Amino acid sequence: MNRARRGRLAAAVFLLAGTAATVALVLVALNENINAFHPPERIVNGTAPVGTTIRAGGMVTPGSVSRDAEGLGVTFVLSDFQGSDFPVRFVGILPDLFREGQGILVTGQLDAGGTFMAHEVLAKHDENYMPPEIADLAAHQAADP
Amino acid sequence: MHRLLPLAAFVVLAGILYLGFTLRDPTLLPSALVGQPFPEFDLPTLGDPPGRATRADVAGDVRLVNVWATWCPTCLAEHGELMRIRRATGLSIVGVNYKDDPAEARAWLARHGDPYDFNVVDLAGDLGVDLGVYGAPETFLVDAGGTIRYKRVGEVNGRVWREEIAPVLAEIGTPGDG
Amino acid sequence: MIVELGHFATILALLAAVGLAAAGYASAANPAWRSAAATLAGGQLVLLVAGFGVLVHAFLVSDFSVAYVAENSNTRLPWYYRASAAWGAHEGSFLLWTTIMAAWTWAVSVGGGRLPAEIHGRVLGTMGLLNAGFLLFLLSTSTPFERLLPGAPAEGADLNPLLQDFGLIVHPPLLYTGYVGFAVAFSFAVAALLSGRLDAVWARWTRPWTNVAWAFLTVGIALGSWWAYYELGWGGWWFWDPVENASFMPWLAGTALVHSLAVTEKRGAFKSWTLFLAVAAFSLSLLGAFIVRSGVLTSVHAFAVDPERGLFLLALLVATVGGALTLYALRAPGLGSRAGYAGASRELLLLLNNVILVVALAVVMIGTLYPLAYEAATGGEKISIGPPYFNRVFVPMMFVLAAALAVAPVSRWRRTPARLFRGAALMLGAAAILGVALPLAFAGTFEPGAALAVALAAWIAGVHASDAWRRRSSWTRGYAGMVLAHLGFAVSLVGIAVTSTFSHAVDARMAVGDTVVLNDVAYRFADLRRVDGPNYVADRGEFLTDGGVALYPEKRLYDARAQVMTEAGIAAGFTRDLYVTLGEKLPDGSWAVRINDKPLVRWVWLGALMIALGGTLSITDARYRRLARRDAAAGRTAEAVATA
User: Fold this and answer.
1) What is the pLDDT at residue B175?
2) A55/C384 Cβ within 8 A
């Protein structure tokens, strides 16, 4: 093999290895960080997986927000106002726009008792906002009331 | 790099954007309530002392029915537009005070102005469920026969009035189109 | 009346843009049209500046008969926020976008006067066509001049409190200047494809415009990150949010373009690749505009969903990008280039740079659009991609990029003699020791990621500094700009790695008088007062550290919209920021408080500023002025020969 060919071969091997490594990394990382969204109905009826990181959303039921006496734990109920309600547990600081009756997105895991253990609570900084997940939820309800 | 590759990739991308966009847009989904009669209800009003209101009080004239609450910042944002509509067109507006504290609601109206003919107090959200409400504000246009002709999810602003509500009003044929 | 004049000026600007498109393309064939194109480019700018000025004026005088003013302003806003509210929402910010587009067009019209007519006319024509599309979109779906008649409200709904901030006064104009500036490179690429003329002269003309746009975009993104950090981030400064990614993708493409243009200019290589990047950078700007303005992706920054606008923007995107890529598919192969290079040449390093940047771009794009594709494929199943995806894939690539960048100054075109790498290799050893030792000495723990980042940054700094010293008598501004930008990359790299690895944070329940200790600093909640702002009331906390630093976080209630806002109390420093935020008031009167200790976080943005400054410095290089004169002379000769 002459020098030029060897060089070209090395480049091709390098390129192939790099591509393979990148594609593998992307696939693995994507797979590990996909969080599926589950509407309240699926959380309540047991279709949503227990123990994996998922997203859920709903409206904060007025009167359901309860802060612990010590520490920063808080519990509240998310509802689709269509009969599916589930409790959420979160430790930390709630966003400014967290309010009773507002649409909220939570990321976390469902425990065996049906409580959603959230590690992130999301409300948008624009008050005209309704997360698309929740807006859709409502649109589906409107479609089959 | 093959010369057609970028174009092909872009066509795929544009397809995804188009599909994703049409799926994500809630206003493109038809509302099953439009064309349906306004639901029956029998609830207290916000007056002091409170009276009662039923469906008969809503039907009978062309009205906007606006679902609002004091805990809803967007309701405050659209309040100026409702005041303007009321003042400029004389269109009747009925409020549904949704899952709210009636005393706070009265104070809120005293502070920001009251565009409503009367307010229905929907403390438990029953009327809200029948109306398919999932948040506040939502606004319905009801014709004189008590049929829902239009539904708006979210804020009513000048643009929504001009481009969406006023044309429906014109179609219904009322003097109150401004 | 004056508002209608502004609207009318904008309509005339659309006509000017259409006229410019026609005159520009016509002047490519017939130079007699050149002065018409120049007039129209100037006229378009004057008209849009007038239109935008009218809008700002309507805000300053609080003319609430204008719907857009009523929805986004309030008489109690300070005057500077009333002015900046003009670009605080979709309609006004897009008018600003078209005005900046007109400014770039005018700059190319004036500054490119020595370009061959064939290129100059087509560049101006393409830019006119682009702005005609933008203005058509603005006027048909998003005019900010609409009146609320009859019955204008007495008071406006107020500007979103999050936007009542210095960062938001300057962030959008800078960002748009960067986004839209890539339209120049895009138009140069289209002109090159149309005329089949792509040589060193073309690259030399395109480079300065690209560098300036790229520098603006760099500063714009850094400002956005800084704003997110103090205004809403609770200490975070980058979230891999779709809207952030929307601005980051054109930046990655632009960075690749800035480097590949160097190869095209100096060596005549990478020609069709450079063209592709020039098209891609602006296409990604448009994609970003679509993502932000259609509401298609969940984001904290996006404007509200509007189907009509979304579809119009998508059509604009398809026409622009589809058109350019079709042209590329038809014409690019004719521009093939063969320039030999081998081994560890500068070409190879720049190729590596481009490959990494474009792959990184693809990674960000996949992460951003995957949820959309998934939803489209499954008919509505929703997913989101967590930030760890981006960190895991993106970070290793940046390490490879840093390594390639470190040896850039010692590399040579065609082939680099091995002895030149010897010094760099020695320095790598020293840098590795520093990488392990420095974080150990300051943080007391060994973190492989931080050690690698510090080592690579030290390597970059060492090689660049020694090379700059060796050439101290012969610096050009181009060279100095390159060194400054690369050092900026190293500074950002250290900032990002250290602040990501060694930050401390705690959420605590605190009443006045309580003390919390974080990373050896004691924070005492000393006082809480009620403060009145111009359009808000606030609870203002006073936190004192045992080091004598005072922090004043606030919880504000903006009354026009009844919106609650958190203002962080930050003690900024070169080596670290102390950062306290008031969360919510708890039923017993105590507060949920977050305390952050962020080492070297300022370096993230300092590095970005150095990068932008470097990019700008390099275009003031004397050779551009010298060569511009020579090229112009050559171009005139060529034209004379062609006509004869």
Assistant:
1) 45
2) yes
Whose tokens are 């390099």? That residue is: C618
Please give the average per-residue pLDDT across B75-100, as a whole number.
87
What's residue B173's pLDDT?
Answer: 67
Please give the torsion angle defined by the CA atoms of residues C148, C152, C153 and C157, in that order, rounded to the nearest 10 degrees: 30
Q: Are residues B22 and B62 in the same domain?
A: no
Q: How far is CA C79 from CA A124, C51, C61, C89, C312, in A?
A: 27, 19, 9, 17, 34
* Chain B interface, best mutation among C162, C303, C318, by max B CB count within 10 A: C318
C147 secondary structure, DSSP code = B
Whether the CB-CB separation of B121 and B3 falls below 8 Å is answered with no
Higher local confidence (pLDDT), B166 or C550: C550
CB atoms within 10 A of CB C188: 30
Same domain flag for B60 and B109: yes
Kindly state whether residues B8 and B80 are assigned to the same domain: no
Average pLDDT over residues B55-82: 84
My answer on whether B7 and B48 are in the same domain is no
Reported as a single tens digit per residue, the pLDDT across B93-104 is 999 998 788 888
**Phi and psi at residue C620, in whole multiples of 5°?**
-85, 5
What per-residue confidence (pLDDT) applies to C577? 95
Domain check: are B64 and B20 in the same one? no
Which pLDDT does position C188 carry in this prediction?
Answer: 96
pLDDT band at B18 (very low <50, low <70, confident <90, very high): confident
Residue B177 lies in a domain: no
Between helix C601-618 and helix C477-502 the angle, nearest 10°, is 170
CATH of the domain at B89: 3.40.30.10
Q: Where are the domains of chain C?
A: 1-164, 199-282+291-415, 504-601
> Which residue stretches of chain C have pLDDT < 50?
300-302, 639-644
On whether both B20 and B48 belong to a single domain, the answer is no
Q: How far apart are CA C618 and CA C486, in angstroms?
A: 12
pLDDT tens digits for A90-143? 999 888 878 777 778 899 999 988 999 999 898 754 444 444 455 444 444 333
Residues B13 and B91 in one domain: no
Q: Are residues B130 and B53 in the same domain?
A: yes
The pTM score is 0.85
Phi, psi (degrees; rounded to nearest 5) at C236? -85, 155
- As its CATH architecture, domain C1-164 has Up-down Bundle (1.20)
Q: Report the pLDDT value the prediction gives residue A129, as an integer from 0 to 100.
A: 41
Which residues of chain B from 2 to 21 reach within 8 Å of chain C, CB to CB? 3-4, 6-7, 10-11, 13-14, 16-21
B174 pLDDT band (50/70/90 cuts)? low
How many domains are contained in chain B?
2
Give the model's pLDDT for residue C24: 95
* Dihedral angle sign, alpha carbons of residues B117, B123, B129, B134: positive
Distance of CA C177 to CAs A110, C20, C131, C180, C425, Å?
Answer: 46, 21, 14, 5, 40
The answer to whether residue B119 sits within a structural domain is: yes
* B178 domain-assigned: no
| Closest chain A residue to the Cα of B155, Cα to Cα | A128
DSSP assignment of B135-169: SS-EEEEE-TTSBEEEEEES---HHHIIIIIHHHH
> From CA C344, how far away is CA C341, in angstroms rounded?
9
The alpha carbon torsion through A15, A17, A23, A24 (nearest 10 deg) reads -170
* C380/B23 Cβ within 8 A: yes
Per residue in A29-79, pLDDT (tens digit) is 998 888 888 888 889 988 899 988 999 988 888 889 999 988 899 999 998
- Do the chains contact at B72 and A144, CB–CB below 8 Å? no
Range of the domain at B2: 1-29
